Amino acid sequence: MKKLTFLLIYLLATVGFAQGNMISGKVVEQSTGEVLLGATVQNLNNNSATTTDFDGLFTIPGSDGDVLRISYIGKVAKQVTIANSSFLTISLLDDVASLDEIVVVGYGTQAVREITGAVSIVDSEVIENLKPTRVEEALQGQVPGVNVTSSSGSPGAGLNIRIRGISTNGDNRPLILVDGNIIEDLSVINPGDIESISVLKDATAGIYGVRAANGVIIITTKGGRKNQDLTVEFNSWGGFQETSRKLPTLNAQQYALLKNEAFANNGQALPFTDISNLTDTDYQDEVFDNALILNNDVSVRGGTEKSVYAFGMAALLQDGIVGSDKSDFDRFTLRGNFDHDWTDNLKMKTGFLYSHTSNKGINDGGLGSVLFNALNMAPTIPVRDENGDFSIAEGLGNEVINPEAQLANTYNRNYVGKISGNFGLTYSFLENFEATARIQANYSEASGNNFNPRAFYGSGKVFNLTENVYSEYENFFSDYTYDAFVKYDNTFNDVHNVEATLGMSAFRTRGDFNGFTGFGNESNEYNEVSLEGADRIIDGDENGARRFDQRLLSHFVRVQYDYDGKYLFSAVIRRDGSTIFGPENRFGYFPSASIGWVASDEEFLADSEIFDFLKFRASAGLIGNDRIPAFGYVSLLTGEGQYVFNGQIINGTASGALSNPEIKWEEQFTTNFGVDMQFFSNKMNVTLDYYRRETRDLLIAPAVSGILGSGAPGSSAPFINGGDIRNTGIEFLIGYSDDLTDDFSFNASYNFATLDNEVLFVNNDNGFIEAGGFGVGQPPITRFEEGFPIGYFYGFQTDGIFQNADEVAAHPSQSALGANAQPGDFRYLDTNNDGEINLDDRVELGNPLPDVTMGLNLSFNYKNWDFQSYFFASIGNDMVRNYERNQPLTNLTTNALNRWTGEGSTNSFPRVTTGATANQVFSDFFVEDASFVRAQNLQLGYTLGENALSNVQLSSLRIYGSVRNAFTLTEYRGFDPSASSGDPLASGIDNGFYPVARTFLVGVNAKF
Fold first, then answer.
1. How far apart are CA 790 and CA 779, in angstroms?
2. Ranges of the chain with pLDDT below 50
3. Eight-state DSSP code of residue 717
4. What are residue 868's DSSP bridge partners?
5. How far apart are CA 1004 and CA 296, in angstroms?
6. Pairing relationship of beta strands 989-990 and 878-881 according to DSSP bridges
7. What is the helix (H) or strand (E) element at residue 427, kind and residue range?
């Protein structure tokens, strides 16, 4: 028996020794390189298990050929085969469909599985890969239903964010919060500081009240974690920018031939008798430059048992692709967060954000802009004449001047300094209660100057100045928000989970504008002029009209309930009061509710081989909107008036904007139905939403008779509740991520969103509101009209080109359009069949809003290499080509080479002539399909391994190169099909948009 016992002990010891080899390694986040504390490591061969320590390290029994399974909450589990018993470094991908992920949703947080509203999330990895210069760029193509357009590609220019279409003809901006701070201008945020972005798109945004009518964007910046060692991260990237497109304009010889033909067609002498030795200047080449862009940022974060902290600093330098240093943007930001648990019951959160921006700008939009002039300037005119002076642009119309002279005479500098801070305390009491009070405030100063020197650009030019003009301004803005609320959170019988929130919010914002303009400085040099040296000075604030003070006061109640995590319910009612409206209409009540059902938790789906997760949700609610100027319900002395005293004219005040005491809240009623699904061990996630949003009682400033005085200086039309509008659409997202081998993993996601916009009602006698300018002296070309999309294009429909005099004679007269038709001119349709072509024959010609937007994101990792690509598409949107001046001697694009030259030559492009024609009235000839597909970012990176970093104090080092805006596929012939003026009623009119640059970057990401 003793021998048998000894033998058994020997055999067990032998087996134990055979299994006793120890394998060591480290587990890190793939996106950040940070170590993961508490990751579970299992050896599937011997059933042993362990967890990682504070440094992400582990040791586990194992041998070559054994398989380890590594898992961590919020990460995709990974299996690794042990080879050569070497030290293992294992990186885990973010789980694209992590149900336990916590997101900020308004006065609190929720797990993803509990959300009953339409909420989309963009994490830090996506932002780091995109390397945007502005936060808005990280949303395009990532969040279905969110469309971001630029009114200008110039450095520092703002971007327009539209969540689920245009819901009002006024201010369509969403509410933006950064760590609880309300931020109006996202240029102050360094994208590299962002941990995540949550976008609230449906009625559940109503918890934020009136300012959430156009959706909510919640930005959370990177912070420390408790018991985290000091972590330092440094990012640096830089490169150069170039224009993504130049338009094909006529060269000197083509230009001379076509102008000779145009003059000959009108019986005039030819302007170019010898075309053999012409100057040939490409003014686009002259104004476009390769421009520098450089960004550096450093962040520090960590934590102790009771505190967490984070600090970041960043600097961005960007020159413009038009005018180079005449159009630049510099940004410096500081950010800090410090949270501390004073006791188990009392917790503090603090944070601050400081930014300073500096930029110079050029005339980059509309008639007379730099690019407009570069396109229309005659190529036969050199940049400088024989004396070395800038050439003047005679015979090219009043707006077209030498763009190089225009740039040389552009002088301005603008500065914005802004500081934001927040402080909050949360106190827990009576076991289930929690009280929070917090205040956040913003203060900013904007200052700058502008100088227009004495200059002569040509006869009759609108830019000519016989005396110079120098101006300075200094504006001040401040606001604060105070929130106080109490939460009750309890669970009954282990299945009934209840959370109730009762709170209030107060907001006040103020602004003060100060500016002076001086005329007639003796010096004509920017560095020598001043207000003191001016002959006369005008005070821009002399009538006291340049201040505002607005306030909001709100109270709200929210109840959230779930039964066993399966049946979800949330309801909010909020009472908002705004000083925008008069006493009778000041307060409004705005309720919303949402429900959800986690069907995958039901017993009948417990053993499903299809669904890992299945949730249905629905929401409905009413949200108010007050985004119009203050005090529109009363008459204010904010206009300009002149009075005669003792024979002298004295400037004074007069009535300003016309008042309307009846204006009331604009209201949006939104419904949303959605489903969230996960498959294949949570490797694939699918989200589908249908929404319907009706905006009622739109706040509109309609055109009124000049007899009422709305055209006087400082005056304007009154605001009215003038119409209803509806947006409906479907949003779809699918994502898949997997580790195919130990060395290769990939991630793919695709999303699309549809949009159907329709005006339901217009509250005026005409039944429509006009907007949008085209050419010079033509009637407005866009409309807000019942039964049509907001801002649709309205003009004449062409029916080919008259090929001969018989066709002209057989067609209704077009003389009402400005000239009798001749062969080679456009034939316009008589749409009302009254036998005459006039303004009554105009019809719908297109829609600036896209029918569908799409995003496609593909990435993979192979060993130390990684590749990311991001694509965006906009389908069905139209744009108006309005960047051609059409004067006798202005340049044209090469499309004019396809002009009509005789019967049968073409049926699409009219003849060229200097005589009067109706060919330039607004018609479908100027409306183009602006659908496009854009490669937003292509990036290739390499992360150095442990061996390469063993002799330096780095935990990770990644080097990468990328191309932003690599290419755009479109049939639109302008500079940029993605551009927009931002005006809801006239968004798609292209006056020569400054294009978004193509950018080539190299960068490094280092962590210590």
1. 18
2. 1-20, 96-97
3. P
4. 859, 939
5. 10
6. parallel
7. strand 411-429
pLDDT in the model for residue 655: 66
Provide the pairing of β-strand 411-429 with 346-359.
antiparallel
Q: Residue 215 region, left (φ>0) first, then alpha (ψ -120 to 50), else beta?
A: left
Q: DSSP readout, 930-984?
A: --EEEEEEEEEEEE--TGGGTTTT-SEEEEEEEEEEEEEEES--SS-TTB----T
Cα 255 from Cα 233, distance rounded (Å): 56
In the chain, DSSP finds a helix count (H) and a strand count (E) of 7, 54
Cα–Cα distance between 426 and 346 in angstroms, integer?
6
Q: Give Dmax over CA atoms of the chain in angstroms.
A: 132
Task: Tell me the three state secondary structure of residue 969.
Answer: strand
CA 253 to chain centre: 42
787 in the Ramachandran plot: left (φ > 0), alpha (ψ -120 to 50) or beta? Answer: left
Q: How many Cα atoms sit within 13 Å of 775 on the Cβ side? A: 15
pTM of the model: 0.85
Which residues neighbour 276 within 8 Å (Cβ) at sequence distance 6 or greater? none
Q: Which two tokens stand for residue 380?
A: 């036969």
Tokens coding 676: 């969230």
Tell me what pLDDT residue 935 has.
Answer: 94
Helix (H) or strand (E) holding 129: helix 124-130
Side-chain half-sphere exposure of 893, counting CA atoms within 13 A:
15
pLDDT given for residue 389 in this prediction: 94
Decide if 821 contacts 827 (C-beta within 8 A): yes
DSSP per-residue letters across 240-274: EEE-S----B--HHHHHHHHHHHHHHTT---S-S-
Residues 6+ apart with CB under 8 A from 116: 204, 568, 569, 570, 594, 595, 596, 617, 618, 619
Q: How far apart are CA 956 and CA 958, in angstroms?
A: 7
Report d(CA 120, CA 631) in Å as an integer. 36
> CA 45, CA 67: separation in Å to the nearest integer?
6
pLDDT digits (tens, 9 = 90+) for 4-17: 443 333 333 333 33
* Rg value, the chain, Cα: 32
What is the 3 state secondary structure string of 848-864?
A: CCCCEEEEEEEEEEECC
CB 932 within 8 A of CB 977: yes
Q: According to the model, what pLDDT value does residue 42 have?
A: 82
